[in-house]
Amino acid sequence: MSELPEAVExxxxxxxxxxxxxxxxxxxxIREFLHGGDPKIHAAIVHSRDKxxxxxxxxxxxxxxxxxxxIHDLQANVLAHAFRAASPRMIGHMTASxxxxxxxxxxxxxxxxxxxxANVENSTTLTLLERETLGLLHSLLFHNESLDYxxxxxxxxxxxxxxxxxxxxxxxxAMWVARNNALGPRPDAEPPLAGVQTAGLARALIQxxxxxxxxxxxxxxxxxxxxxxxxxxxxxxxxxxxxxxENYRVRTDLMEQKIMELKExxxxxxxxxxxAGTTETGSIDDLNAVADLAQTHGIHFHVDAAWGGPMVFAPxxxxxxxxxxxxxxxxxxxxxxxxxxxxxxxxxxxxxEAAANIRNTAxxxxxxxxxxxxxxxxxxxxxxxxxxxxxxxxxxxxxGIGAIVERSCDLTKKMAKYLSQHPSRCFEVLHQPxxxxxxxxxxxxxxHKRRDAGELTGEDQAVxxxxxxxxxxxxxxxxxxxxxxxxxxxxxxxxxxxxxxxVVIANPLTVWRDIVxxxxxxxxxxxxxxxxx
Length: 533
Known about the structure:
- The chain is an alpha/beta fold.
- The chain contains 17 helices and eleven strands.
- It has helices at 6-9, 16-35, 49-56, 67-77, 101-113, 125-142, 149-152, 167-182, 196-199, 201-207, 224-231, 252-264, 287-297, 386-420, 448-452, 458-478, 512-532, and strands at residues 161-164, 212-218, 239-242, 267-275, 300-304, 329-333, 345-349, 427-429, 437-442, 485-491, 496-504.
- The strands form two sheets. A seven-stranded mixed beta sheet has the order 1-7-6-5-4-2-3, sandwiched between helices. The chain has a four-stranded antiparallel beta sheet with strand order 8-9-11-10.
- Helix 11 links the parallel strand 2 (212-218) and strand 3 (239-242).
- Helix 2 (16-35) runs parallel beside helix 4.
- The longest helix is centred in the last third of the chain and has 35 residues, at 386-420.
- The termini are far apart.
- The model has no long low-confidence stretch (mean pLDDT 91).
């Protein structure tokens, strides 16, 4: 039998001294990344292909390396230029924020245990913790006092929800459940009908007299629903998008009209989606109105609250999510406003038996009689990321999370007011923020009179969009005073698509000065670009 090379074996049998030395070195590296060195949000290397080739073209994999040498190179060549998501001046993306310090240690603990949550034999008590975490969130979102949570959360034949790698897989799983329940087996029919999971989508629809199937929701729905429609066999034409109002909330009157049209056309609507915090604008649909439509027409009601779900913990804003508890399923992301590391998503089911039609088992691992939540997940092997959510709920608490969310929303509203009243009059807010996302754009001075008179032409709109794009790109490259993202979407005042700055304020370390400095830099860049025109 061949022996392991000593250089390899030492990494599996590291002594306490080895690990302690590495921990000290890593701690120093992390502190340097988070608190020291270049204060920029990122370095200019990401925009230079020559520098990238110089740094990343020299590594060879023909020999093992010393771990501290490896981390030193990582620090010098990668981390020194990496995107600093925790920077309080980074106000442009949803998954970029400072995290509570305890999450870093828990990430190491999850790696050390290396339990696989697909199967209880590979996880034991961490599976129980995952079930408890889902039960805690379920009780906070659905408010169903009739459920015996201590009993139900651990019942092997019931499923309050599942952990996923993020909102995309959670939304896909929700649509999977909705499709399989809408087209489930009908043994009482004559002749008996197999479910879609057995017969396939085309035959299941034909047998029931339908000509097609679709998902219906806001035109501002997350793009994961486009993927879901494709993967589930509906095709992207099976994703029916409903226009929104001036604040980017779905028009429920048009949604109801479309549901009636689809029924008349013999198209099955497998799910109606309400959005609690759109990814572009942070807008929240009238969830009660959408729930009424779903209930009236007997359709699965899914709430995509990947972003806005934690607003239920903020007393000042929780009323905006009224109706979320009526969802048949709810998506919520830990790595957004529950302040966990990335790749932590969840899907919750109002009915603990709703996921029965997607259950899959295997004789060697996720058996029929086991309490494995892996029977209901699209992913197989999964780490114990539930520990991150359990820690946030336990240490920050719903009240602490709510306080962070409330502060973020307040800051966003203050920013919208500041932009609207800015002495330069060069900023135009596109909507009144419902949460902590905001869209605005840069309008050059020579267009102020035409803007104020409502006389901007198509060419004027193109100039405004071009300047907004160029300012965002220039600021992104500099990485100095701040970072905002951008998007392109329909703007009611322009009666057409425009480019806009997109701000996401969620970092608890962001203060008003960070926002003002970001805007002042944009103003300077805008004036410089106007001189270049």
